[in-house]
Amino acid sequence: MRQASTEEIKRLMLEGKSFVVYLRSEMRSKTVKEMFDVDVVYKELVKSFPSLEFLVVETDEDRDALSLLGTNFTPCVVLVKEGKVHKRLDGIKAWNEYLSFLSELEGEKNA
Asked: Structure pTM?
């Protein structure tokens, strides 16, 4: 899991890459309690799916990532498949939703 910029995400999308992006806002974390929950879940997802590329964008510093990935919601986990936004999970979800969300991409990488 590493920090990324909108420019890097654009480049990866143009290259047709598949990856996962977590859009978060440190400023909103004090008022949006789900931010802490998704922070914890995202770290566990990174451990559970070591073959996938996980990125994080701080939207306080890089608002363009929101429009590039088609959302204005934080926290949001976005699955980019072959350079296109494939799915988005806004806010905290049940663990099994994340598992099914990412198993699809992991299966593609291992095929």
From this structure: 0.91
